[in-house]
Amino acid sequence: MTQPLRLGIAGLGTVGRGVIRIVQDHAALIEKRTGRAIEIAAVSARTRDKDRGVSIEAYEWEDDPVALARREDVDIFVELMGGSEGSAKAAVEAAIAHGKDVVTANKAMLALHGQSLAEAAETAGCVIRFEAAVAGGIPVVKALTEGLAGNAVTRVMGVMNGTCNYILTRMEGAGLTYDAVFAEAEALGYLEADPALDVGGIDAAHKLALLTSIAYGTRVDFDAVALEGIERISIADIEQAADMGYRIKLLGVAQRTGRGLEVRMSPCLVPASSPLGQLEGPTNMVVLEGDSVGQIVMRGAGAGEGPTASAVMGDVLDIARGTRVSTFGQPAASLAEPQAATVTTPAAFYLRMELQDKPGALAKTAMALGEAGVSINRMRQYDHVDTTAPVLIVTHKAARADIDDALRRMAQTDVVIGDPVAIRIEEI
Ligand SMILES: NC(=O)c1ccc[n+]([C@@H]2O[C@H](COP(=O)([O-])OP(=O)(O)OC[C@H]3O[C@@H](n4cnc5c(N)ncnc54)[C@H](OP(=O)(O)O)[C@@H]3O)[C@@H](O)[C@H]2O)c1
């Protein structure tokens, strides 16, 4: 008879609890699907006697996750503690050193140490799977590594931080300021302990770095992600972008261009009628484009107990079935050093500025754009407030360097008040 596959679960918080629930509730279904029972041998967390809403009495307990990772009766080490360094990394390294396969939801650890961990795993004949680390319940890692493996990937795009999408759509829906919605999100417990991970785009950039590695066969390089958060987005940007037919999203984009690999996580305008534009609340969406398949859009819950545990268990069942895929879709030693693009692909830009409400102000602004080689596609001026008038400009495609040059020239005029806002418009 086939031996049960035994899990050692480190971390019994939101995700760990969800994994235990699935193992307990779906034991028969899982065994039918894989031909092998999946059992939990032992667990670890910081505090032993905590009510976790699931029974863990039947499982052995380890105070130290590294000791759990080394146990003889553990076949798969399931790391659900979080944190890029410390216990999570030490325990994953220990598991690999002891020949265990690893399933993790830890994007921070993999975005920073994915290459060395993947190399160690392959040397030891182990696999590391991390579906839950990217876009929660959406099986995007599997789609890229397996279903689309016959494609040259042309672009990966995604809204992969539900908290940011909640903040942006709530600002628009309720007409509230960024600060007001940020405070709401904090009160609802939506924000990480360090909010910069969410609103600074870091969490989403970790995920994008992982997808980029799989999509383009490059070593994971978190530092190569050009990163900008949503902290500077104002309600005026949101309302006026909507007026022009756009929505603002914290959008990750990875694409290979003639100038190298372009990887950025930043606020972008997308058409309001596009699937990305219609994405509401904390939901995630990943758009994959391949030369043969065309465009695929995947939408679903990017976080939460059930969706994240679903992704963890998908990986566990793969291992139970004997599916063994390299961490980033090809042997770690064959992953190339990423060649970062020195300039980004030209795009249309949305510019919002306050002009002095006096004759010649628009002409001076248009001249600054023209001198920088940026041409105007659409322009809208709103009713003036006191002595200033808000002006919106959508440019034709321009290089970011030319837009920055135009902004510098505008600052030198005596008609632009404060710093104009420039946001890229992404073609979908
Ligand atoms: N929550 C989500 O929706 C979600 C979505 C995608 C990915 N993830 C990722 O999944 C992982 C877990 O997230 P989570 O939301 O489940 O976190 P969580 O609710 O904060 O739970 C973390 C668990 O790890 C345990 N832990 C922390 N440090 C430990 C240590 N040094 N030794 C032993 N146990 C330790 C904690 O123990 P105590 O309970 O005793 O404190 C807790 O049980 C993270 O990498 C996160 O980024 C989460």
From TrEMBL:
- Active-site positions, per UniProt? 207 (proton donor)
- What is its pathway? Amino-acid biosynthesis; L-threonine biosynthesis; L-threonine from L-aspartate: step 3/5; Amino-acid biosynthesis; L-methionine biosynthesis via de novo pathway; L-homoserine from L-aspartate: step 3/3
Protein residues bound to L-homoserine = 192
Q: Name one GO biological process term.
A: threonine biosynthetic process
Q: What is its EC number?
A: 1.1.1.3
Binding annotation for NADPH: 107
Q: What are the entry keywords?
A: Amino-acid biosynthesis, Methionine biosynthesis, NADP, Oxidoreductase, Threonine biosynthesis
Q: Which InterPro entries match?
A: ACT-like_dom_sf, ACT_dom, Asp/hSer_DH_NAD-bd, HDH, HDH_cat, NAD(P)-bd_dom_sf
A molecular function GO annotation: NADP binding
Q: What's the top EC group for this one?
A: oxidoreductase
In what residue span(s) does the ACT domain sit? 350-424
The record's family statement is:
Belongs to the homoserine dehydrogenase family.
Q: Which PANTHER family match?
A: HOMOSERINE DEHYDROGENASE
Classification via NCBIfam families: PRK06349.1
Protein name from the UniProt record: Homoserine dehydrogenase
